[in-house]
Structures are given as C-alpha cells and as structure tokens.
Q: What sequence folds into this?
C-alpha cells in the first residue's frame, strides 16, 4: 500500500498549479480494488476543494475517479500513456482539461464526465485518446465548447451526450472519427459555428430531443456516415446548407419543430437511399427550402414525406405549383396547417392578383356562399402574427387594400 502511494509521485510540473493547488495527497489516494487486486486512484473531496491533478506515473493504475470537488484541473500530459479502463469525473463545480492531458491513453472501457456545472475543455485536450468503448458526457454545462475541444478522438463504440447545455460550439468542437454510435439526447446546442460537429466514418448518428438555436452553413458535417436521425428536436434556424455530407444512406428529421427552414437547407447533403421528413412543424419556409431534395436527381430516393404542418399564409403559395413528391403524392396532399392537422393543404387554394402575387389562401369549396368572406378572413389572418407575415411577403399591399375594402364593406353593412 505504502509502496503504491510512493509510486503515485506528485510531480508539480505545471505552471499555474501551485497557487491554487490543494494538497493533492490528502484528496487523491491510490487504493487497491479488493476484487481484482488492481490499484486505482480515487480523489474524493469533502469540502469542494480546488486542486490540480498531479501527473501520474504509476502505470499499473487502471481506474481514476474524481468526485465531489470544486475546481479541478487536469494539466498537460498528466495522464499520458496510462492503460486506463475507467476514467470518471463526477459532481464537480468546474472541470478544466488542458491540452494533451490524456494523450496516448487507449483501450478505455468507459470515460464519464457527469454532473459538472462548468466544463472547460481546452483545445486538443483529447488528442491521442483512442479506442474507447463508451464516452459519456452527462448533465454538463459548457459556456463554450472551444475549437478542437473534442477533436481527434477516435475509435469510439458509443459516444453519448445526455442532458447537457452547450452555449456555443466553435469550429471542430466535436470532430470525432470511427464511431459506431453517436447519440445526443436532451441536449441544447445554442449556437453552432460552421464545422462545429464533424463526424467521420460513423455508423449511426441520433439526435433526440435536442435544441439547436443557431446553425451555419456546414454546422453539421457527416463524412462516411451511414445514417443520421433527428427526432423530436427543436431548431431555431436551419441555415442554408447547414448539413453537409458525402454519400449518406439515411437522413431523417421527424417530430421536430423548425422555426425557420432557410432556402436550400438540405443543399449540402448527398443522399443515397432514404430521406425522411415526417410530423414536423415549420413556422417559416421558402419556395427553395427543399429545392435540392425534391429534384429529378433524387427520383430514385425513397422519399418519406408526410404529415408536416406549416403556417398557412401566402408564404407557402409556392406549394401549389410543386408537382409530384413521388409517383403518387404531392407535397400539398401530405402537408397541413398548424392547428388544423386533420385538414390537408389541398382544401385551400391561393388567390392571386393580376400581378401574380398571392393575396390569400382560400377554402376551395366553402360550405355556404355567404361565408366565403368569413373564410378568407379566418384562413388569411387571425392574429397579430399575420400582419408581420403579410409585410414579409410579396403582394402585401394588394392584400392590405383588399382587406381595407372588406372592412369598409362590413362596416357599411352594419350601418
Ligand atoms: C475554488 O475556486 C473558486 C474560484 O475558481 C473559488 O471561488 C472557491 O472559493 C475555491 N474554493 C476553495 C474551497 O478554495
Ligand atoms: C446535474 O449537475 C448539477 C451540477 O452541475 C447538480 O447540481 C445536479 O443535481 C445534477 N442533476 C442530476 C439530475 O443529477
Ligand atoms: C478509422 O478506421 C479506418 C478503417 O475503418 C482506419 O483505416 C483508420 O486508420 C481509423 N482511423 C483512426 C484514427 O483510428
Ligand atoms: C466559417 O465561419 C468562419 C467564421 O465564423 C468564417 O470566417 C468562414 O468563412 C466560414 N467558412 C465557411 C466555409 O462558411
Ligand atoms: C457553404 O460552404 C461551402 C464550403 O464548405 C461553400 O462552398 C459554399 O459556397 C457555402 N454556401 C453558402 C450558401 O454560403
Ligand atoms: C404508389 O402507388 C402504387 C399503387 O397504387 C404503389 O404500389 C406504390 O407503392 C406507391 N408508391 C409510393 C411511393 O407510395
């Protein structure tokens, strides 16, 4: 036991360590696992102490657990070359991992970072970390995922991010390769710079109940990825060509809410087999939002488009001129108005003025002749949002004039 403690030498090699270091040997102890007889390092804090983990040169250590502390720093090369089966950072106020801290650490069965109020991964922190069965990040907040924070990690069986909040993800924040399953669950990625999520040579990518506020051209880069699923997610803006890929078999967005689907949002994708876009709600779309998906180029693609709801106003009048989603359907037949899921868009028709600007959407065959006017009003404009929509769309002047006329008529009638 004493020998092992001796082996865990405390090397105070890093710069900032001294001023803020707590007595490492009081917190970190090398113990022996009674079952396996293997030594492991345990750093348990009692009073949220701040400390810097000293370099470990006892190569027989197979497990490290750091728990219940204040500010913890893992300095440059401190864990280099260890044959660690398990690494666990749990319940910390702040965790800072400095560059190359875990270089040449390989064959890890589980690396867990959980319950960290402020995660601060410095550029190249994980360079040289490879061959990991499970990489788990859970209940962690990071104000910025810096450039190259989780980059150069390779060969991971399961990469799981759960219940986390990342305010800003910089370029190459997550640049990982050779992954079997990449899952992000219930996690917020507020602002994603271009190339912030770059997955290479990956089998399955699943985002479930995630939030993405802002994206950019190329925020999501998938190279040699088999399938990508977004389920029950919330997107603020999906920027033009936000998703990039080389041949990708499956791309799917289902049960999600999209505030603004920018023109040619899917333009960066190269799809091989299946495109799924079902049960989504979209506030703002453009005539060209889907342009590179609904093209003859993709006539062989298995297109699963169904049951999406849109804000029904003149902003979607272009859907009426879109033909044949596949051999049997049009986009119109498979789309609905927000709040009226039982009614497909086909029951409406856009009314154009003489300049071919859309004036309103009108019910095709209103039940009673007298209620035509009323229908126009209800489908066209029922709340304050509608004025904004009107202003944003072409031909609003005409509609405005039309509505004024309508109001005057009604007033005259009332009088
Ligand atoms: C740990 O460091 C933080 C600042 O990073 C400080 O506010 C806190 O008081 C320190 N805690 C201890 C126990 O020294
Ligand atoms: C999540 O982590 C925070 C510390 O950042 C902790 O206070 C909280 O209890 C954790 N939540 C769960 C559900 O474990
Ligand atoms: C990733 O996997 C491929 C083969 O699937 C292999 O050739 C390549 O060396 C791996 N890359 C790394 C960094 O392990
Ligand atoms: C990526 O973003 C950076 C700044 O955020 C910008 O300078 C660069 O031009 C962008 N690259 C592409 C390809 O859009
Ligand atoms: C998006 O970025 C790519 C480079 O990655 C560039 O070629 C393309 O022009 C950009 N598209 C837009 C719409 O900015
Ligand atoms: C179109 O309809 C035909 C027969 O009605 C059916 O066999 C085929 O599977 C349908 N295609 C799609 C894409 O739904």
A:
């Amino acid at each position: 036991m004493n020998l092992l403690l001796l082996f865990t030498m405390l090397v105070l090699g890093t710069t900032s360590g001294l001023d803020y270091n707590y007595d490492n040997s009081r917190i970190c102890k090398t113990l022996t696992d009674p079952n396996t007889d293997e030594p492991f390092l345990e750093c348990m804090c009692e009073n949220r102490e701040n400390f810097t983990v000293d370099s470990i040169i006892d190569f027989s250590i197979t497990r490290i657990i750091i728990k219940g502390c204040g500010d913890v720093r893992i300095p440059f090369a401190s864990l280099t070359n260890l044959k660690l089966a398990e690494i666990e950072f749990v319940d910390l106020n702040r965790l800072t991992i400095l560059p190359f801290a875990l270089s040449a650490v390989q064959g890890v069965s589980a690396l867990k970072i959980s319950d960290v109020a402020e995660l601060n991964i410095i550029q190249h922190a994980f360079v040289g970390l490879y061959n990991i069965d499970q990489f788990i990040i859970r209940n962690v907040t990071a104000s910025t995922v810096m450039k190259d924070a989780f980059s150069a990690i390779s060969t991971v069986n399961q990469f799981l991010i759960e219940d986390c909040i990342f305010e800003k993800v910089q370029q190459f924040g997550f640049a990982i390769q050779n992954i079997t399953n990449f899952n992000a669950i219930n996690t917020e990625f507020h602002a994603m710079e271009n190339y912030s999520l770059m997955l290479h040579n990956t089998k399955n990518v699943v985002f479930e109940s995630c939030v993405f506020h802002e994206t950019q051209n190329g925020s999501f880069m998938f190279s040699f990825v088999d399938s990508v699923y977004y389920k029950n997610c919330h997107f603020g803006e999906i920027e033009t060509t936000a998703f990039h890929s080389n041949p990708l078999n499956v791309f799917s967005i289902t049960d999600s809410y999209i505030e603004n689907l920018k023109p040619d949002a899917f333009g960066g994708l190269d799809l091989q087999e299946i495109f799924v876009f079902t049960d989504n709600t979209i506030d703002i779309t453009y005539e060209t939002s889907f342009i590179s998906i609904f093209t003859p180029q993709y006539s062989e693609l298995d297109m699963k488009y169904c049951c999406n709801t849109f804000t029904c106003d003149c902003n979607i009048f272009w859907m009426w001129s879109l033909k044949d989603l596949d051999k049997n359907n049009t986009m119109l037949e498979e789309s609905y108005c927000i709040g009226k899921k039982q009614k497909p868009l086909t029951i409406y028709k856009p009314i154009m003025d003489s300049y071919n600007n859309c004036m309103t959407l009108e019910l095709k065959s209103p039940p009673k002749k007298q209620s035509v006017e009323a229908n126009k009003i209800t489908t066209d404009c029922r709340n304050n949002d509608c004025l904004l929509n009107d202003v944003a769309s072409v031909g609003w002047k005409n509609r405005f004039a039309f509505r004024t006329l309508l109001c005057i008529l009604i007033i005259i009638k009332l009088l």
